[in-house]
Design brief:
It contains twelve helices and ten strands. It is of the alpha+beta class and 344 residues long. The strands form two sheets. Strands 1-5-6-10-9-8-7 form a seven-stranded mixed beta sheet, sandwiched between helices. A three-stranded antiparallel beta sheet has the order 2-4-3. The longest helix is centred in the first third of the chain and has 32 residues. 30% of the residues are buried. The structure holds phenylalanine. Phenylalanine (PHE) binds next to strand 9 and strand 10.
């Protein structure tokens, strides 16, 4: 009997199975009720009493080893089972809910694209600014009404020195100031970004909106250059038959200053409710940079001149997509946002 046990111990030590069926066959051969080990257990009572202890120990060892070996092989097969057979690779994929670009981002990128092709770089700056960069260096008088609580959000008011007031920028001209402080001409930048004004929220005004402002400073820059660049922009943005018109205006930081209208892109200039029957709609402010601004930013106004312009992205978007209520842009109503799925 002991020889039989030793032989089985050898066998069990070298058990191999290449699939689960073979493994099951081994289990039946060694461990089932009618298996080899149980057969030995049944014969155990014939073992002479003085050998019972030694044979019994060896037999138990065999049983444990067989169980262990078969369990290990089983585990190996389970780890290999990737479940791949259960996946239907021909099945249509689950629909993935793709987001859409925000209409203001679409239009902003379009504006940036047009000016980038004309050689403008993008400049960025902080939204929380000081008075110096938003107003003082832009030639705003100390008592200019734009500094008033009506327009400006104040973060921190300095009782002794207005230029040190910390505010939310009310235009991105502050980025132009920062650019001029850091670089000498030629400077050709556009400054896209969010700006804040303390206005009551309605369908036509919000307490924040978005702008793209532009600045070009070099030797001999004239108003003609400004007009040509703005005409090219208007035609790229609204179509090649778009006309522009410049009306005299006033900004503290430009002289002369103008406001630019484009021929109404809805009625084509014949007059409609959108352009209040005038055939024209206003889209931006512009002008030649005031020498005081150049000097305040460390640029010699006897050598250099330049132009600047600024537009609201919401306004351009309204003209392109006829959005009637400004508040739609910040409500994140996906029914509205999805309408722009195809735009980009
Ligand atoms: N900064 C002006 C505004 O916010 C726009 C502007 C920029 C006008 C540059 C002229 C020149 O309204």
């Amino acid at each position: 009997m002991i020889e039989k046990i030793e032989q089985l111990l050898q066998e069990v030590d070298h058990l191999q199975a290449s699939n689960t069926e073979e493994l099951e066959a081994l289990r039946i051969k060694y461990l089932s009720k009618k298996g080899a080990i149980n057969a030995l257990m049944a014969d155990f009572r014939h073992v002479p009493a003085d050998q019972k202890k030694a044979v019994g120990m060896r037999l138990n060892e065999l049983k444990d080893k067989a169980q262990e070996k078969i369990a290990a092989l089983k585990e190996q097969f389970e780890a290999q089972d990737t479940g791949l057979d259960d996946i239907d690779l021909t099945r249509t994929a689950y629909p993935v809910g793709l987001g859409t670009r925000h209409p203001l981002s679409i239009v902003k990128n379009e504006i940036i694209d047009i000016f980038a092709r004309m050689g403008f770089n993008i400049a960025n700056g902080p939204e929380v600014e000081d008075d110096l960069h938003v107003y003082t260096k832009l030639n705003f008088a100390a008592d200019h009404p734009a500094r008033d609580m009506q327009d400006t959000f104040f973060v921190n008011v300095n009782p002794n020195d207005v230029t040190k007031n910390i505010i939310l920028r009310s235009h991105t001209s502050s980025v132009q100031v920062r650019t001029m402080e850091q670089a000498q001409p030629p400077i050709r930048v556009i400054c896209p970004g969010r700006v804040y004004r303390n206005e009551a929220i309605s369908y036509r005004a919000h307490c924040f909106f978005h702008q793209v402002e532009g600045l070009y400073i070099d030797k001999g820059v004239t108003f003609t250059d400004l007009k040509q660049v703005l005409l090219l922009f208007a035609q790229e943005m609204f179509g090649s038959d778009t006309k522009i018109r410049l009306r005299p205006s006033y900004f503290p930081f430009t002289e002369p200053s103008a406001e630019m209208d484009i021929s109404c892109n809805i009625c084509g200039g014949t007059g409609c409710p959108f352009c209040k029957q005038t055939g024209w709609v206003e889209i931006l402010g512009c002008g030649m940079v005031d020498p005081n601004v150049l000097e305040a930013c460390g640029i010699d106004s006897n050598v250099y001149s330049g132009y600047a312009f600024g537009m609201g992205i919401e306004r351009i978007t309204n003209l392109k997509y006829q959005v009637k209520d400004l508040r739609m842009f910040s409500e994140n109503d996906t029914r509205f946002l999805r309408e722009f799925e195809a735009a980009y």
